[in-house]
From TrEMBL:
PANTHER family noted in UniProt: ANAEROBIC MAGNESIUM-PROTOPORPHYRIN IX MONOMETHYL ESTER CYCLASE-RELATED
GO MF annotations, alphabetized: catalytic activity; iron-sulfur cluster binding; metal ion binding
Cofactor: [4Fe-4S] cluster
Occurrences of domain Elp3/MiaA/NifB-like radical SAM core (ranges): 272-537
Protein name (database record): Elp3/MiaA/NifB-like radical SAM core domain-containing protein
Key words, A-Z: Iron, Iron-sulfur, Metal-binding, S-adenosyl-L-methionine
Length: 709
C-alpha cells in the first residue's frame, strides 16, 4: 500500500507528549495562519501550535473589540433535526462567534423542511452558512446547496446559470478573492458554505465537490475562528491536533432560536436531559467507529517530527464546564424547566479522576445536577474501577453509566472490533457498578459481519478480520449465535432490574476498518452512507437471509426483556428459532407460555416508584385502562404480558406508559406494534437512569394509592 505523500514543513513548534496544551499568553496577538502541510490529493493539515490557539476567549473578545472594532461576523449554523439530544457542536461553534463579537443564528432541518433556509437567509442576512453534516443525512443538504449556489451565481452575474459545477467554481473564485463573504457595498451577495461534521471524516472530497467552500475535517474550533478572520481561502482543511479549547457554548441564543424555529425543536429546550462536554478525544481504536481515526490522524500529523504527540484525550477547563452548568440552571428558570440529568457527550468519561474529583465537589455544590456518563469496561473493572465508581457515586455525581460491550465473543471483540477487554473484565465492571447501585446501560451490536465471506478474500489485506495470527478462523454459520453470546454474558452477570440492555443493528460507517472489511468481504456495497447514522431497524449488510434479518430485528426489539433472566439466552433461542412470526401477539403468547420457565436475576427490586407489584395488581390496572370494547384485544395482549411487566423495572408504571402510547396511537388511527412496545420500554428505562421517573398524568389518580402503599 502506498503511503500518502506528505510535504513536511520546518520550524513547527508543536506540543509533545506531557506538554500542557494551553497558550500561556491566552490568545494570539497577530492574525496569521498556522503552519500548513499539504497531504497530497487529500487535504491540508493545519498544524496549530499552542501559541496559535485561543484559550482565554473572554480576553480574546476584548482584544478583538479593540483592534477590530467593526468586526462582527454573522453565521447561520445548521444541523439535522433527527437527534434526541441537543446539538452541542453548533453551540460550541456559536460560542466561537460570541467570543469574536459576532452574531449566531441556528436552524435544525430535515428533508421535509430544509427549504426554509432560503427564507431564514433572506431575513437574517448571514455572512457565513455552516453545516454540521452527519453521515446518512446528506443528500437533501447537498441538493439544497446546489440550488443555493446556482441561484446566487445567476443573481450576481445577472444571467441564467444552470450548470452547478460552473456556478460552484465561479463562487469559490469570488470567495477566494474576497477571502470570505462576497459583498456589493454593504449588501451581502453570497454567504460562503462551511461544511463540518463526521461525514467529512471519510467523504471530505464529496463535501467540497458538492458545494462546500470550506470543508473542515477533525477539530473545527481553531479553523472556524481563522475562516471567520479571512485567513483561509476555499479548500479542505484538517485539524489533527487534540486541543480542548472550546469556549463556553452559546446555549442561550441556540435555545432562543430553537424556541422560535418549530414545535419540534422546542423539545430540546423543554427536555429534562441537557448535554455537556467534559473532554475531547478517545484513545481507543474500535473498528466500527469513525472517532478511532483521530488517533491515526494525529500519528500521521506527527510523522517525521521527531517527537511523540500529546495525549488524544484532553479535558476541558473546569471553569468553562461549570459556567455551562450555570447556563443550564439560568435557562431552566427562564423557560420553566427543571433539568434532571446532564448527558456528558465525551467519548470516554472518567479518564482523569483528578479532574473529576475537582469538578465533582464544585459541580454538586454549585449546579447539583447529576451527569450521565459513558465509560469502558476496563475503566470500571478492578480496584481502579471501584475507586472511580466510588468517587462519582458517593456525591451522587452520576445518575447512570453507559458501557459498551458490543459482542459476547472475545475473539469477535478483539479481531473484528479491535476491542481488547475480555469477558472477565466485562463481568467485573458490571459487578462493580452494581455494588454501588448505579443504573447501568450495556450496549451491544446485533448483526455483525461474522459469517465467512462467500467471495475470494484475503484477510491479511484488511485491518480487521475473523482470522487470527495463527490462521485460525472464528466465523459463525449463524450470526444470531454471536448475538446470543453477548446476551448470555449479561444474563450471567450482576445485571439488575433497573439496568438496560441496549443494542443496535449494525450498519457500516464508510472509511472505518469494519466498514471497509464489510465491503471487501462482499457483505455490503460502497453505498452505506445513507443509513450509517440512523440506527436503522434493517441491517446495513446484504449477506443475511430474509429469515435471519427478521430474527435479528426480533432479537433487537426484545433483548432487554430476556437480559433480566438467568436463562435469558435459552428463552431468546426458543423465541427466535421456534416462532414463525415476530409480532406483538407472538411475543405476548411466548411470554405467557414460558411464565413458569422465567428465572429472574433478582426477585425483589428497590428501584422505581412502585418497585414490587403482583399479577393481580397488573390485571386490575388493565381493567381500568382498557374499558372500551375496541380495546379488548390489546387488553388481552397485556394480560399475556404479565410476566413481562412483573420482571422489568417499575412494571406498573411501564404498563401505564404503554397504555398512554396505545391510546395515542389509537386516536391517530395507528396500530400498536412490537416496535412501539420496544420504544416505550426503552424510554421508560431512560427515564430512570436520567432521574426522570414519573407517573403518567392520565393514570395519576389510579396509581397514587400504590405510591402511598
Amino acid at each position: 500500500m502506498n503511503k500518502r505523500e506528505i510535504k513536511i514543513s520546518n520550524n513547527i513548534s508543536l506540543p509533545k507528549r506531557g506538554d500542557a496544551l494551553v497558550n500561556i499568553f491566552g490568545y494570539p496577538k497577530t492574525f496569521q495562519l498556522p503552519t500548513l502541510e499539504n497531504i497530497s490529493g487529500k487535504y491540508i493539515n493545519t498544524m496549530y501550535s499552542t501559541n496559535d490557539i485561543t484559550v482565554d476567549w473572554n480576553a480574546y473578545k476584548k482584544f478583538l473589540s479593540e483592534v477590530k472594532p467593526d468586526f462582527h461576523p454573522h453565521a447561520l449554523l445548521i444541523g439535522h433535526d433527527s437527534s434526541e439530544i441537543e446539538n452541542i457542536t453548533l453551540m460550541a461553534l456559536g460560542g466561537v462567534l460570541q467570543h469574536m463579537n459576532g452574531i449566531s443564528n441556528y436552524a435544525l432541518v430535515g428533508e421535509n423542511n430544509i427549504n426554509i433556509l432560503t427564507d431564514i437567509i433572506k431575513n437574517k442576512q448571514p455572512e457565513w452558512i455552516g453545516f454540521n453534516l452527519y453521515t446518512g443525512l446528506t443528500d437533501f443538504v447537498f441538493k439544497w446547496i446546489k440550488q443555493y449556489k446556482i441561484e446566487r451565481a445567476s443573481f450576481i452575474l445577472k444571467r441564467n446559470i444552470s450548470d452547478f459545477e460552473h456556478a460552484d467554481r465561479l463562487l469559490k473564485n469570488m470567495v477566494r478573492e474576497a477571502r470570505g463573504p462576497v459583498y456589493d457595498g454593504n449588501q451581502i451577495l453570497y454567504a460562503p458554505i462551511i461544511i463540518g461534521g463526521h461525514f467529512n471524516n471519510y467523504s471530505f472530497d464529496e463535501s467540497f465537490e458538492k458545494g462546500g467552500d470550506y470543508v473542515v475535517r477533525g477539530k473545527g474550533i481553531n479553523i472556524f475562528r481563522d475562516i471567520l478572520l479571512g485567513l483561509f481561502e476555499p479548500g479542505i482543511y484538517h485539524d489533527p491536533m487534540p486541543y480542548a479549547n472550546i469556549p463556553q457554548m452559546d446555549r442561550e441564543v441556540f435555545y432562543s432560536d430553537m424556541y422560535e424555529f418549530s414545535d419540534k425543536t422546542k423539545g430540546y429546550i423543554y427536555s429534562k436531559i441537557k448535554s455537556i462536554l467534559t473532554a475531547l478525544g478517545c484513545s481507543y481504536t474500535c473498528s466500527y467507529c469513525y472517532i478511532s481515526s483521530l488517533i491515526d490522524n494525529l500519528k500521521e500529523a506527527y510523522q517525521n517530527k521527531g517527537i511523540k504527540p500529546p495525549s488524544i484525550i484532553q479535558d476541558r477547563p473546569i471553569g468553562t464546564v461549570l459556567a455551562e452548568g450555570q447556563d443550564i440552571i439560568r435557562l431552566d428558570e427562564h423557560y420553566g424547566v427543571k433539568t434532571a440529568a446532564v448527558f456528558d457527550q465525551a467519548d470516554i468519561s472518567l479518564n482523569n479522576m483528578n479532574w473529576w474529583n475537582e469538578l465533582g465537589e464544585k459541580w454538586m455544590h454549585d449546579i447539583g445536577i447529576p451527569f450521565y456518563i459513558q465509560a469502558r469496561p476496563a475503566m470500571l473493572a478492578g480496584k481502579k474501577g471501584i475507586e472511580r465508581i466510588e468517587t462519582i457515586s458517593k456525591r451522587g455525581l452520576v445518575s447512570g453509566i453507559s458501557m459498551a460491550i458490543e459482542s459476547g465473543d472475545q475473539n469477535v471483540r478483539k479481531l473484528l472490533l479491535d476491542r481488547h477487554e475480555n469477558n472477565s473484565i466485562v463481568l467485573d465492571a458490571i459487578k462493580n457498578v452494581k455494588n454501588f447501585g448505579v443504573p447501568l446501560r450495556t450496549q451491544a451490536i446485533v448483526g455483525l459481519p461474522v459469517i465467512k465471506p462467500s467471495i475470494p478474500f484475503n484477510p491479511n489485506a484488511s485491518k480487521v478480520s475473523l482470522v487470527d495470527s495463527e490462521g485460525k478462523e472464528h466465523y459463525y454459520d449463524d450470526p444470531l449465535q454471536e448475538s446470543l453470546k453477548c446476551l448470555d454474558l449479561v444474563c450471567s452477570s450482576f445485571f439488575r432490574r433497573e439496568d438496560y440492555y441496549w443494542n443496535a443493528i449494525y450498519s457500516p460507517f464508510p472509511g472505518t476498518p469494519l466498514g471497509d472489511y464489510s465491503i471487501k468481504a462482499g457483505f455490503a456495497t460502497g453505498d452505506t452512507a445513507s443509513r450509517a447514522y440512523l440506527f436503522s431497524s434493517e441491517s446495513g449488510l446484504n449477506c443475511f437471509s430474509d429469515l435471519t434479518s427478521k430474527r435479528q430485528l426480533a432479537f433487537s426489539l426484545t433483548s432487554n426483556f430476556f437480559a433480566h433472566f438467568k436463562n435469558g439466552k435459552d428463552l431468546m433461542s426458543l423465541f427466535i428459532y421456534e416462532q414463525d412470526n415476530y409480532d406483538l401477539d407472538s411475543f405476548s403468547n411466548f411470554v405467557l407460555d414460558q411464565k413458569d420457565n422465567l428465572l429472574p436475576n433478582d426477585q425483589i427490586s428497590t428501584c422505581g416508584l412502585i418497585p414490587n407489584i403482583s399479577k393481580n395488581c397488573l390485571e386490575s390496572f388493565f381493567d381500568h385502562a382498557y374499558r372500551d370494547d375496541s380495546d379488548c384485544m390489546f387488553k388481552e395482549i397485556n394480560k399475556k404480558l404479565a410476566g413481562y411487566y412483573l420482571y422489568l423495572l417499575d412494571g406498573l408504571l411501564l404498563a401505564a406508559k404503554m397504555a398512554v402510547s396505545y391510546h395515542t396511537n389509537k386516536e391517530n388511527k395507528n396500530s400498536f406494534t412490537l416496535s412501539n412496545l420496544y420504544r416505550v420500554e426503552r424510554l421508560h428505562y431512560y427515564d430512570n437512569c436520567y432521574h426522570m421517573n414519573y407517573i403518567p398524568e392520565k393514570y395519576a389518580d389510579y396509581l397514587t394509592d400504590y405510591l402511598k402503599k
